[in-house]
Amino acid sequence: MSEHTFDLVILGAGSGGYAAALRASQLGMTVGLIEKHKVGGTCLHVGCIPTKALLHAAEVADAARDSAKFGVRATLEGIDVPAVTAYREGIIASKYKGLQGLIKARGITTIEGEGRLTSPTTVQVGEQTITGKNVILATGSYSRSLPGLEIGGRVITSEQALQLDYVPKKVAVLGGGVIGVEFSSVWRSWGAEVVIIEALPHLVPNEDEAISKQFERAYRKRGIDFKLGVRFQGVTQDDNGVVVTLESGETIEADLLLVAVGRGPMTANLGFEEVGVAMDRGFVLTDERLRTNVPGVYAVGDIVPGLQLAHRGFQHGIFVAEEIAGLQPVVISDVNVPKVTYSEPEVASVGLTEAKAKEQYGEAQIASYDYNLAGNGKSHILETAGIIKVIRVVDGPVVGVHMIGARVGELIGEAQLAVNWDAHPEDIAPLLHAHPTQNEALGEAFLALAGKPLHG
Ligand code: FAD
């Protein structure tokens, strides 16, 4: 038995946990960071970074396939998946090493092993008792399945999808949310047949409806098949593949079924309930300052109900470290967290959808403008189609920006400043947008909503 005492103990070293550790150490706290796997968590090892590397390799394949229309003669000979994996793992290894170095340089103590909360101030890791004046719960999430749908063999989640060393011929994807459409994008670019099954009426169903519809058109054009508003009933598998049955009775044959129906909180059997932490369906309940009902115990990242995104986890981690240090940081609501889906085409948004804005402010108080990327020079050069939609309150601030098109994720910075700072389109419209960039399209949408459409 050994005992270790810190100012702050953090259970889980993913985006939320390690960001809290880095900020707390900067603020002079001693930190014990407990991790059962690898610091960096889901995002670095099996989430954001590996999938974005795959998406880049998919974009390169598309560029080779489509090169002739730009006057470049290249042929796509094939996809060497093990080589793609080596490229991807190289990025992860380098970022992992950098993070380990930073944690060490900041004097943060990492404790390897599976932790369990045993009191509001202690976490047990094997024989070690780790005590802190404050504790942050940051244990993240896991790929969820549906009741009765067992993962194994040809029925896989995103984690097994990352382990594949070949391009499947045909994949069925259960779930048309971010993870489902991103993997579909990769496999389609690499030549696979893809069919997505989504219970809701749209792909990327959390986005503004106009964006979802445009996304569906783009996916159809790419030859990605999808079935909307349909319920999965069951799947059988053998050596040759899977047969997926829908409630309608329709069946789909494929090599694999990717289950991408969302992520559940990793909170079972970790002592949270025993210590009295209030929970709801496995998620840890907090107030807006991320305090649980147990004094001194905070929660961050994917275990807190709301958007499950790495930058939200980072922001939570930094917020709680500053909160504990008494700096009274500003609360950022989930509504104003930027979201990007890195498929081809990309989708990026921040703030209220048109439907939500109308609900909140009343239809007459909302003005919205859709800028068609066909009018933007850089979009022509990139040969991308799409829209940039800006929603404002009449005579008031920008409350939502929704975009679809190649690389629009890179435009979300300005959009999120506008929404988070309650900027009026009149404030932003006079700002310069470099030419030729797709950023100009955002500028033009602001101009139009300020009553001065330049080209419209
Ligand atoms: P995690 O990153 O899951 O970290 C939790 C850590 O806690 C893990 O390292 C785990 O090993 C550890 N842990 C759990 N229990 C214990 C215990 N008992 N003892 C010790 N350690 C424990 N987000 C984006 O913003 N952009 C993206 O492009 C993006 N792409 C994604 C793609 C995929 C395929 C997936 C699966 C996710 C993606 N995400 C993306 C989501 C992002 O990865 C998560 O939102 C983020 O990792 C959440 O951070 P977290 O700190 O809450 O949890």
Which features would summarize this protein structure in a list?
single chain; 456 residues; alpha/beta; FAD/NAD(P)-binding domain; Enolase-like, domain 1; 3 domains; five-stranded parallel β-sheet; 14 helices; globular; binds flavin-adenine dinucleotide; FAD; oxidoreductase; Dihydrolipoyl dehydrogenase; disulfide bond; flavoprotein
Produce the secondary structure layout.
Blueprint: E1 2-11, H1 15-26, E2 31-35, H2 41-46, H3 48-65, H4 81-105, E3 109-112, E4 115-119, E5 122-125, E6 128-137, E7 141-143, E8 155-156, H5 158-163, E9 170-174, H6 178-189, E10 193-198, H7 209-221, E11 225-228, E12 232-238, E13 241-246, E14 251-254, E15 256-259, E16 263-265, H8 272-275, E17 279-280, E18 283-284, E19 297-299, H9 310-324, E20 339-341, E21 346-351, H10 354-361, E22 366-372, H11 377-382, E23 387-393, E24 398-405, H12 412-420, H13 425-428, H14 439-449
Parallel strand pairs: 1-2, 1-6, 2-3, 6-19, 8-15, 9-10, 9-15, 10-11
Antiparallel strand pairs: 4-5, 5-6, 7-16, 12-13, 13-14, 17-18, 20-21, 21-24, 22-23, 23-24
Helix pairs in contact: 1-9, 3-4, 3-6
The structure holds flavin-adenine dinucleotide.
Flavin-adenine dinucleotide (FAD) binds at residues 11-17, 34-37, 41-43, 47-48, 51-52, 114-115, 138-141, 158, 179, 266, 270, 301-302, 308-311, 313, 342.
